[in-house]
């Protein structure tokens, strides 16, 4: 029988013959039939081709070659093969892939040899040193925390490339989008390498222009004040927020949304943020496209109860929203907090306050119904805290008004998260609730990332009255992880010295009580006066909230005060007081404070009230009552471009036994701008130096307007106009002479201010002109104040 190969060749020849015969015409038809018949017969006897058989291998042992550090058993385990088993070629290929994926080998080869499977490997080198070159903006130790390639670990090109990408991303987040990082390998002996990341940091990619489209209610200038991102300006080398950081854009979008919605624009949306490179490709043009919508006010506000047995009347009494008031989510949250507090006092569990809002587009009002409903019976199973290596658990736990076993309140958990972040101890704080061990149980997870809370600062200060001063301060805001504040400060100017130490426990006895202990030693050579003072004292105090926006401080103070170095040409009154020597003042006192900014319900208006008294005579040498008060109001007008401020301040000190001293009276910095320290008030005109002697009373009214000057917002420069009227007056003793003028003489002044918010500190330039004054007053036409830390 012919072989299959011969049959195929014969068939091919017959087909060729058939083609030639076909070209011979019809006369050759018979000759055509003969080769066809031969072809059919041949094909019938040709056997079919055998099917492809998958190649397989069987081996009784595994041999590893080329390994130096890695044990053969480890390599065999990674390979995933067992001797004595038949494997296919595909499975051997999988072995190669697994070994390569381990990152331990530079090359892998699997060779079957009879009953033995030989695995040939070339190991990846071990990293000897990881170093960085060309970096100035980010330090080596910070880069070491970013990369995962570490000394004494196996080097893999894939990990080195991933580390280079991570470094590039770190530079991008700091505004250097042009940064380039290239990993280089330096071969060493014993299969070791040095891994070097060559870094080209590039220039900072700045925000050249920051603009908005679609905004009608607020100007670009006002909206730029809201954003964390800033335009590059005059101080671009100092301002870090004018660099382009992609992640910051999302924060800016949220800040814009919060800004508008707190002002009644409930439909506000950020449609898009376009980013465009400048022609030089070294800066970005950012444009926020916004849709403001309509501004809504509160309409009818009612309270209903859908909780059986709950009377809505007590809850309705705490609603402080007025009809016609601009809508604010904060106002809604405040009312809910008050209602939940009532439920707690009444012992009502699982009460949920549901604000149901009905929109009235025609009148642009929102009707609000606070519905008291019974929520789901869910309890807090436990609170888990992680990430706090230094901060004690109790510092975080006391930010919760909820403890294990209490009814679960999602709103309270959100507020606790905000309080944790407000501590300032953590870089990040994430608070989430998840399902507990049962359907009615919830576990609250708190994950924090701590940050440094201590600081050592060296500073400088300057004012036209005190001259140049320097200070050193050491502070720790999370002392021993207990949430306590400790500060030691030493400061000095040309005329004064102030040394102090302060300790604050924000949760005394684990309650909402702030304990403050402070001690000080001060000396001064008072400006425009001819005497010096020396004071040393200690004061403990307790502060606690009276309401949502108010606090009360109770204190005790003891001090040793002395008037020294009174000039012989000074008033006889001061010379007599100096003869009294050092005296002890022991006093108890209180201060009430109210600040509407704490609630933040109305972002355009705020009130601040402060009133305090100190009663000296609890032992010691001095018996007097000292009273001070402050009333301040601020409002933004003209699309929040202009800020108006009004302030009333006053004080009185009354001796209940004997006479007051200049150490007790109001002296020093003038309460009326436009006058030098000790430039107004009672004065002994009969003394050679006509020195100021201070007054028992003072009162002043201040008006001020702050407005933009047309300069780019990123410069941080605004202007202001102010007007003051007030006086310092009154004495107990005139030393038996009529030459002391302690009458109530009003003084007034007007002026222009330049505010400059610089990275080095806030500066204020006051240019003043006294309008109403006495002939012996001392004017001050210019005043500059700056305080900074570096």
TrEMBL record:
<comment type="function">
    <text>Part of the outer membrane protein assembly complex, which is involved in assembly and insertion of beta-barrel proteins into the outer membrane.</text>
</comment>
<comment type="subunit">
    <text>Part of the Bam complex.</text>
</comment>
<comment type="similarity">
    <text>Belongs to the BamA family.</text>
</comment>
<dbReference type="InterPro" id="IPR000184">
    <property type="entry name" value="Bac_surfAg_D15"/>
</dbReference>
<dbReference type="Pfam" id="PF07244">
    <property type="entry name" value="POTRA"/>
</dbReference>
<feature type="domain" description="POTRA">
    <location>
        <begin position="57"/>
        <end position="124"/>
    </location>
</feature>
<dbReference type="GO" id="GO:0009279">
    <property type="term" value="C:cell outer membrane"/>
</dbReference>
<feature type="domain" description="POTRA">
    <location>
        <begin position="125"/>
        <end position="202"/>
    </location>
</feature>
<keyword id="KW-0812">Transmembrane</keyword>
<dbReference type="InterPro" id="IPR010827">
    <property type="entry name" value="BamA/TamA_POTRA"/>
</dbReference>
<keyword id="KW-0472">Membrane</keyword>
<feature type="domain" description="POTRA">
    <location>
        <begin position="378"/>
        <end position="451"/>
    </location>
</feature>
<dbReference type="GO" id="GO:0043165">
    <property type="term" value="P:Gram-negative-bacterium-type cell outer membrane assembly"/>
</dbReference>
<keyword id="KW-1134">Transmembrane beta strand</keyword>
<dbReference type="InterPro" id="IPR034746">
    <property type="entry name" value="POTRA"/>
</dbReference>
<dbReference type="InterPro" id="IPR023707">
    <property type="entry name" value="OM_assembly_BamA"/>
</dbReference>
<keyword id="KW-0732">Signal</keyword>
<keyword id="KW-0998">Cell outer membrane</keyword>
<protein>
    <recommendedName>
        <fullName>Outer membrane protein assembly factor BamA</fullName>
    </recommendedName>
</protein>
<dbReference type="InterPro" id="IPR039910">
    <property type="entry name" value="D15-like"/>
</dbReference>
<dbReference type="Pfam" id="PF01103">
    <property type="entry name" value="Omp85"/>
</dbReference>
<keyword id="KW-0677">Repeat</keyword>
<dbReference type="GO" id="GO:0051205">
    <property type="term" value="P:protein insertion into membrane"/>
</dbReference>
